[in-house]
Amino acid sequence: MQPHLPCVLFGFAAVFSGLIGYSLHLPRDFGYRENDLKTLAVFYTIVTASFLFHAIGHVLNMHEDLVHAVIALAVVLATFYLFLRTGSRVDFSAPRFRDAVVYGAVVWLIGREMDDIFHDSLSYYEPTPLIIAGVTSFPLTFVIFYVLFNVNRKNTGFFLEGGKEILSNSYLVVYLMGIGVLGACFNSNVHYLSVLVATSVVIYVFAKIYITAKPFLD
């Protein structure tokens, strides 16, 4: 299948924004500042809304290029927002860049291998994998808002343990979404596999936030 150029361009935009964000030297004090939780809430609202729009777009048979363009644009904007709000240094870490490239290559190669061996193994169930991603991730955003509400209500300091890891995984989600858009351009199982992996990362992040904040919810 010949990929559409706009689809490829939007996919690469999302891939590079996530890759660059993941490869930066991240602030060590993330999670210990007053507005960090609010920043994550806004970021994940945009990202998980993209998951939901992705699912709705496929259920309603909307124009695929339009759906993927909206998703890519949304996650790129979310990445810029996260970068500006967290104060990451514009200084690349070669080991982190290498790790991100390896992660992306593994997802891409496994997806392409599924194309060759199983052919339509995941796309056969379309749009079920995308619906799972949308209906699972978007409601979980309210976990962050619930934590934020309780922290503000109790008017107490809240320190997000593992904040640097959470920030790192947030950029990784954008990177995986970009790979997913590129996979869709080539009508590949990479599309569905990448979205499902990104959803798993989102669930992990929300679980980590909830566990850290549990004392504030009692």
Structure description:
This protein has seven helices and two strands, in the order αβααβαααα. Helix 3 packs antiparallel against helix 6 (163-185). It is mostly helical and 218 residues long. It has a two-stranded antiparallel sheet. Keywords: Membrane, Transmembrane, Transmembrane helix.
Short description:
The protein has 218 residues and is an all-alpha fold. The chain is built from seven helices and two strands.
Spatial strand sequence of the major β-sheet: 1-2
Termini Cα gap: 54 Å
Radius of gyration: 17 Å
Main sheet specs? 2 strands, antiparallel
SSE-based structural type: mainly alpha
Query: What proportion of the residues is helical, as a percent range?
Result: over 70%
Beta-strand fraction estimate? under 5%
In the predicted model, the low-confidence regions spanning at least 5 consecutive residues are: none
- Give helix and strand order, one letter per element, not per position: HEHHEHHHH
The coarse overall form would be globular
Q: What's the tally of helices?
A: 7
The overall number of domains is 1
- Mean pLDDT, all residues: 84
| Structure summary, number of beta strands | 2
Which SSEs are present, and which pair or pack?
Blueprint: H1 5-23, E1 24-25, H2 36-59, H3 64-86, E2 89-92, H4 94-117, H5 128-154, H6 163-185, H7 190-217
Antiparallel strand pairs: 1-2
Transmembrane segments: 6-27, 39-60, 66-84, 131-149, 170-186, 192-211
Keywords: Membrane, Transmembrane, Transmembrane helix
